[in-house]
Amino acid sequence: MGLEKPLVINIMKDIQSQRDERFINIRKVGVKDISYPITVLDKANKVQHTLAKVNMYVNLPHQFKGIHMSRFIEVLNRFHGRINFRSFHAILKEMVERLQAEAAHMEIEFPYFLKKKRIINKPELIEYRCSMYGTLDSSDSLSLKIDVPISPPTPVQIDSGLPGSLGLWGFARTSLSFRHFIWIEYIIDMVEKVTSHDLRWPVDKRAAAERYLSVESMADSLAQKLVTHPDICKFKVTVENFARGFTTYASIQGP
Amino acid sequence: MGLEKPLVINIMKDIQSQRDERFINIRKVGVKDISYPITVLDKANKVQHTLAKVNMYVNLPHQFKGIHMSRFIEVLNRFHGRINFRSFHAILKEMVERLQAEAAHMEIEFPYFLKKKRIINKPELIEYRCSMYGTLDSSDSLSLKIDVPISPPTPVQIDSGLPGSLGLWGFARTSLSFRHFIWIEYIIDMVEKVTSHDLRWPVDKRAAAERYLSVESMADSLAQKLVTHPDICKFKVTVENFARGFTTYASIQGP
Amino acid sequence: MGLEKPLVINIMKDIQSQRDERFINIRKVGVKDISYPITVLDKANKVQHTLAKVNMYVNLPHQFKGIHMSRFIEVLNRFHGRINFRSFHAILKEMVERLQAEAAHMEIEFPYFLKKKRIINKPELIEYRCSMYGTLDSSDSLSLKIDVPISPPTPVQIDSGLPGSLGLWGFARTSLSFRHFIWIEYIIDMVEKVTSHDLRWPVDKRAAAERYLSVESMADSLAQKLVTHPDICKFKVTVENFARGFTTYASIQGP
Amino acid sequence: MGLEKPLVINIMKDIQSQRDERFINIRKVGVKDISYPITVLDKANKVQHTLAKVNMYVNLPHQFKGIHMSRFIEVLNRFHGRINFRSFHAILKEMVERLQAEAAHMEIEFPYFLKKKRIINKPELIEYRCSMYGTLDSSDSLSLKIDVPISPPTPVQIDSGLPGSLGLWGFARTSLSFRHFIWIEYIIDMVEKVTSHDLRWPVDKRAAAERYLSVESMADSLAQKLVTHPDICKFKVTVENFARGFTTYASIQGP
Question: Which of C 216-245 lie inside 8 A of A, CB atoms?
């Protein structure tokens, strides 16, 4: 088999070379799932140390020949301690240059922590999964994704003896690209105003329930907030609910 | 380093050989995370095809020398299509013999499906994570673990407009060893009678809430059912709740 | 807050209604991560029972109003025991009809098992992660993705005392859409001929190593096989390598 | 059902109360999977910011009554920024006191990063999964677990054209309790000296291969190092290998 193989490959290469230019035009190389300590801007404490999963890849024009995978790690190491929104463009530019690529992409996924008063009255450290995704090709784009957990308050009077929440209802995943810098805290607050709406208010409980406790209406409410926001140019919002052993979800993309 | 190493090892071996008999007395070898299609007894349909994760290991008396890891797989393959409660003992016995072991252990984890009417009135296929764990040494033991998801009904009148459940509240993990064969269906029903107790009954709503919606009281209620059951000789029950971004749990072991 | 909210929403709705038609045009609803037992066509044994993770979603024209999430499950249950390549189109069609959708999508991910002689000479049950993905909108498409694990043979003479393989090198992920039905077995064989190429042949060991043990050259070799295949109309191949604590990969898309 | 229930429970409680004292004697409550930013001692840089998964639980003497789950979080928050080897005992003591428990347990799992020259000659940030586990009851114990990835060098001459490593061979999991403080770095170095032993040395290649590339012999070599170490009082070592689609492992416990 070893001997015939090169022959077969050569023949295929001839056929291939004719098809190549027209057809096979997307070639990517990259690195995935790199655990990497990063520092994120934090409104209350200036910086927050956290741990990212990093994915980096480039599009290549013709051939894979001569790619040094270690260069991805070298670029990452050069920005050690300075990986954030502001350096994203510079990192992507260095990827394009060092790997002689047509386009560069990077995704950084990390947990972000905020002290919040939830359920009980003492502040807890709540975890929000975030990710930043940037692309550099002819144009330049950067987006931010945030997962906000949803545990709606128990919809009965406070003296019922029931706990404040009846479970993890689901998540609101908001993905944004924006015109100006936005604090992660700001987006989380905006989302939580919609998702944790207090169902205990006495007037028209039924209408409230209908509006707030379906994935469709919650996605709608969030989309309405995002589509009119002056600093947000594109968004996608997905609301997920775990109430039934599997996940139901609704998703809206805009503008 | 290569040259000095064997020397160092030999010296250590001498020290070691004196300590060995007194101290290092637990040596195990095994295989883990083998995906394997199995057939489980099903009360309604006789058998159910599912997919297991299999872990097998043995205790060895003195030395690892001469272990053939492939023998674990050979034993498994010989019982292909016949892996269940009844064959567990035979599989463990063959492990002891073929691997000349002092003791043999096997764990089989699999999802089990039951048609249940939940929330909506149409039957859904509900997934219950199960596992069987067996040991064969001087004695012989077999236990069964079942995870039952908990989504308590919304604690208000049915005409409130609210959905039937407000989220995945948590899980009840029941681990049992028994005197006589027990159907998986029977245990699931027993657990669900406690965990899905209808909070909409009008009398003493507050007391009901208190009793049923804390991990401690739910674990207590389950333990009371299990400790008095004539066919169950040992149990462990753990109730987990996801309402707060992390998991709280309570666990009771008996008898 | 409860009182002001509806007002704000109404104002936004007016703004929104003008933007809606032009901008927010992608609305999806669906279900995710449903564990579901399925039956797959198997070349050697006719059928194979396995366990799928099912994702289903639809695109909606204007509004979410009136969606019954339970209908996804009803459709799935109606095809219970008949979910496979051949029924995919019918399932998607029923989703479009029952949910009054513009487009329907379904993904079914499942492990597929084959008896293979690997490393040792006895047949083992090897697990291959597969997934089928189908879309029905104006046109109709169906694709198949298969993950083939790569454990290249140890590149030295067979009498070296070394084990047959030195680790899990990585995976080859092949994603295909095709003109005619293709057996899963056929694609796996095709991939394994490239990925497990025996490096022990004596001639030009160095060239062989270079060709076969980089993600780029392995992706190239696979792409050459796929691009010339008469039954395959589109493909994507990604080769991943775990040798370094993170994953490196190369990906080619064609034709 | 609601009406009969309390009656049944009362009867069971009577039976139960007689059995309680003799039988049901292990009651635990706790919190699990809390994501929490921590600071770990680092030999080269003094401290290292990382992200832990925290599990905390206590054993309770008689009853669950009156447990406040939020107290676990309060204890954790009081030690925010000071969670490490040295504070472990104080945290456990505070858990016992605040929850009026018989015993307290805490496990902290976190990734630890070290700059290492691996395969290529430039330093990479390598991730090691670590966990600390402490118990406070009549006595007091603390142990440290470290996972060291194993990618043995390719066992042929350096000019073969082959990459430096042929895959992720597996992991060495070392679990220790010790008499004196030991640096994480020290244990990792000790383990890597055994697991990455260079197979390219010319003398007796066959013997080397046999000794180093089986999970049994690698576990033996590690146990020999640990059993004779003056600062280590107890250990467990498990070596896992991924070469075959499932995991094989060997484990030794001592002294």
Answer: 216-217, 219-221, 223-225, 227-228, 240
Nearest chain C CA: its distance from B54 CA (Å) = 13
Asked whether the beta carbons of residue B149 and residue A245 sit closer than 8 angstroms, the reply is yes
With cut-offs at 50, 70 and 90, classify the pLDDT of residue A110: very high
Please give the Cα distance from D56 to D79 (Å, whole number). Answer: 14
Distance, CA of B82 to CA of B38 (rounded, Å): 8
Chosen from B125, B158, B168, B188 to mutate, greatest number of chain A CBs within 10 A? B168
One-letter amino acid at B85 equals F
Does an H or E element contain D224, and which? helix D215-227
Contacts of A13 in chain C (CB under 8 A): 224
How would you classify the pairing of strands B170-178 and B232-241? antiparallel
Shortest distance between the Cα of D121 and any Cα of chain A, in A, equals 10
The DSSP string of D22-63 is TS--EEEEEEEEEEEEEEEEETTTEEEEEEEEEEEEEEESS-
Amino acid letter, residue B49: H
Tokens 């100006």 map to which residue? A180
* Nearest alpha-carbon partner for B164 in A185, A167, D38: A167
Q: Compute the distance between CA of residue A206 and CA of residue B29 in angstroms, rounded to an integer.
A: 60
Instruction: Choose among D246, B126, D254: nearest CA to D237.
Output: D254
Q: Is B99 helix (H, G, I), strand (E, B) or coil?
A: coil
Torsion angle (degrees, nearest 10) of CA D33, D37, D41, D47: 160
Closest residue by Cα to residue C195 from C116, C98, C253: C116
Asked if residues B117 and B123 have their Cβ atoms less than 8 Å apart, the reply is yes
In which element (H, E) is residue D220 found?
helix D215-227
Among the listed residues C206, C248, C13, the one whose alpha carbon sits nearest the alpha carbon of residue A99: C248
Q: What are D53-107's pLDDT values in tens digits?
A: 999 999 987 666 667 888 998 899 889 888 877 889 999 999 999 998 989 999 9
* Residues of chain A positioned with their CB less than 8 A from the CB of B151: 167, 243-245
Q: 3-state DSSP call for residue C35?
A: strand
Q: What is the DSSP string of C231-242?
A: TEEEEEEEEEE-
Instruction: Spell out the alpha helix ranges (H) of B21-87.
Output: 70-78
pTM greater than 0.90 (yes/no): no
Please judge whether C27 and A251 are an interchain contact, meaning their C-beta atoms are less than 8 angstroms apart: yes
Give me the residue label for tokens 């998986």.
B184
ipTM: 0.80
Q: For residue D218, which of D175, D255, D254, D173 has the smallest C-alpha distance?
A: D173
What proportions of chain C, in percent to the nearest 5, are helix, strand and coil?
30, 40, 30
pLDDT in tens, A130-157: 999 999 998 888 999 999 998 776 666 5
Partner residues linked to C73 by β-bridges: none
Give the distance from CA A213 to its chain's centroid. Answer: 24
| D 123-142 residues with CB < 8 A to A | 123-125, 127
Q: Count other C-beta atoms under 10 Å from residue C195's C-beta.
A: 21
Closest residue by Cα to residue C152 from C230, C205, C74? C205
Question: Which chain B residues in 34-63 lie under 8 Å from chain D, judged by CB atoms?
Answer: 34-35, 57
- Angle between helix B70-78 and helix B88-98 axes, rounded to 10 deg: 150
B23 vs D255: CB contact, 8 Å cut-off? yes
Q: Which residues contact C46 (CB under 8 A, 6 or more apart)?
A: none
Of A124, A169, A209, the CB nearest to B160: A209
Taking contacts as CB-CB distances below 8 angstroms, the residues of chain B near C127 are 35
Q: Is the distance from CB of B104 to CB of B141 less than 8 angstroms? A: no
Question: Taking the C-alpha atoms of C86, C89, C93 and C96 in order, what is their torsion angle to the nearest 10 degrees?
Answer: 130
Helix (H) or strand (E) holding A105: strand A103-117
SS3 C132: strand
